[in-house]
Every structure is written in C-alpha cells, then in structure tokens.
Amino acid sequence: MILPGSYVRDLLQQVPGTAATARGWVKTRRDGKNVHFIQLNDGSSATDLQVVVDEGAVPPEVIARVTTGASISAAGELVASPGKGQSVELKARTLVVHGAADPEEYPLQKKKHNLETLRPLGHLRARTNTFSAVFRVRNVLAKAIHRFFQERGFLFIQPPIISSSDAEGAGSMFQVTTLDLENGKRADFREDFFGCRTYLTVSGQLEAEILALAFANVYTFGPTFRAENSNTPRHLAEFYMIEPEMAFCDLNDDQDLAEAFLKSLIEQVIAECRRDLEFLSKWYEPDLFQTLEGVLAGPFERISYAEAISLLQQSGRSFEFPAEWGCDLQSEHERYLTEELLKKPVIVTNYPREIKAFYMRANDDGKTVAAMDVLVPRIGEIIGGSQREERYDLLLNRIREQAAHGMKEESYRWYLDLRRFGGVEHAGFGMGFERMMMYLTGMKNIRDVIPFPRFPGNAEF
Ligand code: 4AD
Ligand code: MG
C-alpha cells in the first residue's frame, strides 16, 4: 500500500538525496543511450515522476516488460532532474513489474483516443491524463462542499435512496421491486418487499425538510436518479445532488447562500487544483480561468421570471421555442440570458406556479411561486431551489389540485404534519454535482465528469 509521503505527488516535492520507492502505472518508456526513462504516475499528480534506469541496473527482460499501462515499483534515490517541469527524478536501483500490459493489446497504447472513443473504455480511462485530472477535481469538489457547510454549522444528513414518494412530481422514476414481473400476472404491490410501490429517489428534499425542522440547517450529498429519457450532454440517469435545507430562511437568504456556495467552491477548487485546471483549460476550454475568476469578481445578476421573459422577447432572437409568459425556460433561453446578454451567473426567481413543483411557496400575486434557478454560462441551470410552502391550507390545496396527476393526499400526511407542528418558513436548493463539475473542468459532456455514467442504453462497468 502507498503510505502518505510516498505518493508520486509527495515524491515530487522531496529534496534530492532522499531514498524513495515509487509505485504506479507506466505512462511511457523512452530508451536513450545506456539509459531508460519511465514516466510513472499513481493518479495523485498532474505531473508524472520520471524514473531513470541505467542500462544494466535492471535485467533487460524486466525493462522489456515496462510498457505503457504496466504496474511497477521502483526503488532508489531522488536526484535533481535536468528535465523541465519537475525538480527531482527517481534514479532506480531496483525495479519490479507487478503486472505487464501487452503493448499489442493494451487499448490505451494501441491508438490515439478522444473522449468519445474512451467512453467504452470506462475500466481504463481513469489512467489517462484527462480523466485523472477530472477525477482529482471531483474529489476536491466533494471536500469543498463538505467544508462549506461544515464551517456554517450545517448537519450532514442521509435521506433514503429507496423512497415511496415522488418529490419532484416529475413522474420519471425508476421503480424498485422484488416482485416477479415476468410471470404475466398483474403485479400487486401490496405483496412487494415494502408493501407498496417504491422508487429510487429523485431528490432528498422532502426528507431534508423533516430534518431541517429539527436541526435548522442541514444538507444532503448523495446519489439521485431520474428515468427521463433525455439523451443530452447535461443529463444523467444517476447523478449526485447536494441539497441544503434551512429553517428560518426565505427566498432571499436562499439566493445569498447559493451565490456564496458557488463562489466558495470555485475558490477552493482553484486553490487546490490549479495544475489540473490548467491542463484541462489547455485542452478543453481556453477561457476556463477567465470564466471562473469572473464569477468571483462580482455579484450575480438577479432577475424575476417575468423580467427574463421580457428580456428574451426584446432580444430580437428567434428561438426554437418562443419565450412567452407561462413557458418553462428552455436551455436556449437560459444560455442566451447568462452567456450572451448578462455574461455572468443569473438567478431567476418567481416562476409561474404551473411549471414548478407542488411544494413551492405561493406568492401573493396568485400566479407565481418563490422559486429560484441559478443559471451559469456554458451550462445553463446548475442550481434549482425555492422557499417551501409552510402554510398548511395552501399546501393541502396544492396537493389536492395535483390529485389528477396521481398525487395521493394520504402519502403526504407526514409532509403536511410538518406544517401543523412547529412549522416555520424554510427554503433550500439542489445543486447538480456533475453540472458543477462540468463548469469547473470545462468538460462539455456530463458523461466525462463521473467515473461510471448511467444514461439511456448504458449501464456497463
Ligand atoms: O431542479 P431540480 O430538479 O431540483 C430539485 O430536485 C429540488 N428538490 C432541489 C431542492 O430544492 N432541494 O434539480 C436540482 C439540480 C439541477 O439544477 C441540476 O443541476 C441537477 O440537479 N440535475 C441534474 N443533473 C444531472 N442529470 C440530471 N438528469 C439532472 N436533473 C437535475
Ligand atoms: Mg430544476
């Protein structure tokens, strides 16, 4: 096992003269005159460690097996490196090949790859420079999220993954069952494992509300599932969502928190992953730093849905879906607003109630609800949230209105109870972890920011 201090990242920081053992996978081997140069990485570093083996130090049949993809360990001494990009290299006295990778067969050796051709190689692509950079950023982003909330006293909670309620009312859920559905009989879900129909959760929000009304400030960070058949570069069937929920909080506080959250994550990731972001920027998104630093530079724009619609109407653009009051903002609308017109993150609030979920708080105009979406250039919607309806009667009416769409009042008894016993104004939002990853890394396809993407037609690896 590699212990702290012995990762490639750590060895590269050592002073010349230190004895060291490096372990990892070979990126390349180059043979010079009387010397072999091996680029080695264990996934910990944007820079490889160069291992130098003098001719004769290691038997030729061992060196022959040191090819791209092989796992090796090399022991020796770190010496000052004449090459640029690293201050030390490892002069190896001994070298062990743990697992060879036949150069005739190893897919990452054989031909040039792009993101698309790497996708079917989900078991190997993490060894490429691009994916190791992306997944290191993913790790730091997760840490940054916890740090942001922990520093503010939020309680980390775990809502269930198997759920009997449709939190978003969107009706695009994966059903979970142990019934034998192949025997041709009509399924009776009272006989199912849980005695009712159950699904993979689309959002932990309703459960987060339960805990927010006990701990005031809570957050979730876990997998969510949506069976919508959207084969787009921004949708996954299984993705991670972060959902803070705050009691004694209105829509303004909610927007402030969302803005502080995004800024803090960008700051933390730039500070800790500069080398990885530089690499990703070079290959995938030249404006990456400019965009991210731009977000930190000033306040987000805040406009109402009604203002958004009139800006879209005044734009002189012909959108595929014309913008009219009452329509849901399409991705083309969101991107026009944030990317072209305002050129910064935009928070759009107060959407028509018809197009938003049942739990959002009704505004006094009778037409809109206290919803907010945070839109950012390149991505569109990155955060969706709202103030929740805390008034019992209004919520009950709203649930009853939805009965036609299959919403059962008795399934929401507990949710209504929260309004009967110690209810208080509260609000929250959900951020798509992979959408944030796309924003931070400049990757254009959401399937390239999660190790094992789930989308229609794909559940391999
Ligand atoms: O806007 P959504 O549907 O909001 C909710 O689920 C609320 N319950 C959140 C809350 O108020 N607690 O989803 C929140 C975010 C979106 O803004 C988007 O970033 C991401 O989750 N998201 C997806 N990411 C990847 N693939 C999908 N299919 C996604 N659907 C939503
Ligand atoms: Mg949304």
Ordered list of secondary-structure elements with their pairings:
Blueprint: H1 8-11, E1 19-32, E2 35-41, E3 49-54, H2 60-64, E4 71-80, E5 88-99, H3 107-110, H4 115-118, H5 129-151, E6 155-157, E7 162-163, E8 175-176, E9 198-200, H6 205-215, E10 217-225, E11 238-247, H7 251-272, H8 274-284, H9 288-297, E12 301-304, H10 305-314, H11 331-341, E13 346-352, E14 368-376, E15 380-387, H12 392-401, H13 413-420, E16 426-432, H14 433-441
Parallel strand pairs: 3-5, 6-10, 12-13
Antiparallel strand pairs: 1-2, 1-4, 2-3, 4-5, 7-9, 8-9, 10-11, 11-16, 13-14, 14-15, 15-16
Helix pairs in contact: 5-7, 5-8, 5-14
How many strands in all?
Answer: 16
Q: Which ranges are low-confidence, i.e. pLDDT below 50, for 5 or more consecutive residues?
A: none
Query: CATH superfamily name of the largest domain?
Result: Bira Bifunctional Protein, Domain 2
Structural class: alpha+beta
- Main-sheet strand order equals 6-10-11-16-15-14-13-12
The overall pLDDT, averaged over residues, is: 95
CATH architecture of the largest domain: 2-Layer Sandwich
Q: Which word captures the global form?
A: elongated
Ligands bound to this protein structure: 4-amino-1,4-dioxobutan-2-aminium adenosine-5'-monophosphate, magnesium ion
Order of helices and strands: HEEEHEEHHHEEEEHEEHHHEHHEEEHHEH
| First and last CA, distance | 25 Å
Determine the number of helices (DSSP H or I, runs of at least 4 residues): 14
**Radius of gyration, taken over Cα atoms and rounded to an integer in Å:** 26 Å
- CATH class of the largest domain reads Alpha Beta
Strand content: 15-25%
Which percent range fits the helix content?
A: 25-40%
Number of domains: 2
What can be said about the biggest beta sheet? Answer: 8 strands, mixed
Looking at the structure, the CATH topology of the largest domain is BirA Bifunctional Protein, domain 2
